[in-house]
Each structure stands twice: as structure tokens, then as C-alpha cells.
Amino acid sequence: MRAPTPGTFDYFTGAISEEEGASRTDYSPSEDDNITVQGVSGDKGALGYFGLSYAEENASLLTTAKVDGGAGCVTPTVETVQSGAYTPLSRPLFIYVANKAYTEKAGVKGFVDYFVKESDAIAKAAAFVPMTAAQQKKAADELASLS
């Protein structure tokens, strides 16, 4: 299980128990996903949560949980995370920038433009689920509308 400090813990507990931070206390917290994989794979009936990339990397050791967000059980995959179908256990990650900062500060504009243009490479390096082509186009179009 995740240590109670990162945002993943708050998101998971909020999505599952509807109260951020509400969790049983009889667990072994870790911020190291590899430790969580070892603990879960070595203890029948154990539960851990972490990014999809760790589940995929350790598919021979783990069984992923299907969830039913109201439309039937869904298996976690890149596609079900991208589409939002793996709900409530998938979430988008955003960067927020004031329009004025984007249009008036070259460093901010350069960073955001780079981030959107290189989002696939950044997602891959961070082991995140990348945006779809449609999501990338929408982000690029929204930035273009600010210029």
C-alpha cells in the first residue's frame, strides 16, 4: 500500500472510501512501488496500489483489479485509463498555467509548448499513461488559441 504522504494515497482513499486519508491502519506503507510489488506478490490476498506501469511490468506476479464505476467491470489498460473507463481508479494529470503567464512570459510559454509537444516522451520517461492523439490535438489547439 502507498505511504500516506503522496497524492496517490489521498486519491485512492477518496475514491474508495469517499474520505481522503481514511484507511485501515494495519498495513505496511511504502513510497517505493517495487517494495509494494514484492509485498503484494508474496502475500496471497494482499492489496497494493500504484501506477499502471508497475502492474504491467509485474504482470507475472500480480493480478490487477477490475473496477465497476457503474458501467460494468473494466480491466486497467492504457486504453481504459486514457478513456476514463477505468473509473474511479484512473485519473488525469494536469499542469495549470495562467493564460496571462503563457502569453506574456517567454519561459512559461516555452515550457508549456515543450511539455505539450513532447508529452509522449515525457509520459514514457515518467512511466505514465500518455495522452491520446485527440487529447494532444486538443491541448495544442487550446494553446494555439492563446497566442
Name some characteristics of this structure.
D-Maltodextrin-Binding Protein, domain 2; 147 residues; single chain; elongated; 8 helices
Can you characterise this structure?
The chain is built from eight helices and two strands, in the order αααββααααα. With 147 residues, the protein is mostly helical. It folds into two domains: 7-83, Periplasmic binding protein-like II (D-Maltodextrin-Binding Protein, domain 2, 3-Layer(aba) Sandwich), CATH 3.40.190; 99-146, no CATH class. A two-stranded antiparallel ribbon has the order 1-2. The longest helix is centred in the last third of the chain and has 14 residues, at 133-146. 10% of the residues are buried.
SSE topology sketch:
Layout lengths: L6 H11 L15 H9 L10 H6 L9 E2 L4 E2 L3 H6 L15 H6 L1 H12 L1 H8 L6 H14 L1
Antiparallel strand pairs: 1-2
Describe, in short, the structure shown:
The protein has 147 residues and is mainly α. It has eight helices and two strands, in the order H-H-H-E-E-H-H-H-H-H.
Low-confidence stretches: none
Helical residues, percent: 40-55%
Q: Over all CA atoms, what is the radius of gyration?
A: 18 Å
- Count of helical regions: 8
- Helix- and strand-based class? mainly alpha
Major β-sheet profile: 2 strands, antiparallel
The spatial strand order of the largest sheet comes to 1-2
| Binned strand content | under 5%
CATH homologous superfamily of the largest domain?
Periplasmic binding protein-like II
Q: SSE order, as H and E? A: HHHEEHHHHH
Give the N-to-C terminal Cα separation: 44 Å
CATH architecture of the largest domain: 3-Layer(aba) Sandwich
